[in-house]
C-alpha cells in the first residue's frame, strides 16, 4: 500500500473561463471525454462545478467535480484528478468537498454512476458510504472512438441523513 500524501487544496467554483482547463484534463483522462459544449452547457445550466489547485504550488487544476441538483438530491456527473496526483488522496478530498457542499445545501441523497471496470472509483465510493443499488446496461461508450462498444455502469447512492462523517 502506497503512502497517501496530504495536500492542502484551494477550492473555488468553476466558471466559463475554466472550460479550457477542465476540457484539457478531461481529454487527458478519458477515452470518451466530455465535449466543450458539455462543460459550457453544464455551467450555464447551473450545475454545481468546483475545482481545486494545490495551495503549495498555485492555482493549476489538480481536481474537479461537477454535479447536478434535482430538488433534494445531488447527482455526481464527474470527479476527476490530474494524473500527476493519482494515489495522493485528491479523489477523497474531492468527494469530501462534494459531500460537504451537498449537506450544506440540505441535500438528502447523492447519486452517481461508475464504470463497472473502474474498481478504484468503486472502492472510493464504498469507503465513503455509498451503496450499489442498480446497474445501467450499456451506459458508457467503450472501445475505440466510433465503435459501438458499450460498458455497464453501476448505480450508487449515499443517504446523507445517515452520514456520520
CATH topology: Aminopeptidase
Strand content: 25-35%
CA(first)-CA(last) distance: 24 Å
Number of domains: 1
Q: Regarding CATH, which class?
A: Alpha Beta
| Largest sheet, spatial ordering of strands | 1-2-3-4-5-7-6
CATH architecture: 3-Layer(aba) Sandwich
CATH superfamily: Gcn5-related N-acetyltransferase (GNAT)
Mean pLDDT: 92
Unreliable runs: none
Q: How would you summarize this macromolecular structure in one to three sentences?
A:
This protein is an alpha+beta fold. It contains 4 helices and 7 strands; from the N terminus they run E-H-H-E-E-E-H-E-H-E-E.
Protein model, in words:
With 165 residues, the chain is α+β, with helices and mostly antiparallel strands. The protein has helices at residues 19-29, 36-44, 90-104, 119-127, and strands spanning 9-13, 48-54, 63-70, 73-81, 109-115, 131-141, 150-159. It has a single domain (9-159), classed as Aminopeptidase. The protein has a seven-stranded mixed beta sheet with strand order 1-2-3-4-5-7-6, sandwiched between helices. The longest helix is centred in the middle third of the chain and has 15 residues, at 90-104. It starts with 8 loop residues before the first strand and ends in a 6-residue tail after the last strand.
What does the secondary structure layout of this molecule look like, with pairings?
Elements: E1 9-13, H1 19-29, H2 36-44, E2 48-54, E3 63-70, E4 73-81, H3 90-104, E5 109-115, H4 119-127, E6 131-141, E7 150-159
Parallel strand pairs: 4-5
Antiparallel strand pairs: 1-2, 2-3, 3-4, 5-7, 6-7
Amino acid at each position: 500500500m502506497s503512502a497517501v500524501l496530504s495536500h492542502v487544496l484551494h477550492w473555488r467554483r468553476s466558471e466559463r473561463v475554466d472550460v479550457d482547463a477542465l476540457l484539457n484534463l478531461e481529454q487527458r483522462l478519458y477515452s470518451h471525454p466530455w465535449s466543450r459544449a458539455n462543460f459550457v452547457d453544464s455551467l450555464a445550466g447551473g450545475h454545481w462545478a468546483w475545482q481545486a489547485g494545490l495551495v503549495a504550488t498555485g492555482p493549476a487544476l489538480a481536481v474537479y467535480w461537477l454535479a447536478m441538483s434535482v430538488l433534494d438530491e445531488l447527482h455526481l456527473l464527474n470527479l476527476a484528478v490530474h494524473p500527476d496526483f493519482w494515489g495522493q488522496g485528491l479523489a477523497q478530498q474531492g468527494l469530501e468537498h462534494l459531500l460537504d457542499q451537498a449537506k450544506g445545501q440540505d441535500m438528502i441523497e447523492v447519486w452517481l454512476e461508475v464504470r463497472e471496470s473502474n474498481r478504484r472509483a468503486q472502492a472510493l465510493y464504498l469507503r465513503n458510504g455509498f451503496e450499489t443499488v442498480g446497474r445501467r446496461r450499456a451506459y458508457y461508450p467503450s472501445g475505440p472512438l466510433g465503435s459501438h462498444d458499450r460498458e455497464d455502469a453501476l448505480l450508487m447512492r449515499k443517504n446523507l441523513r445517515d452520514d456520520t462523517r
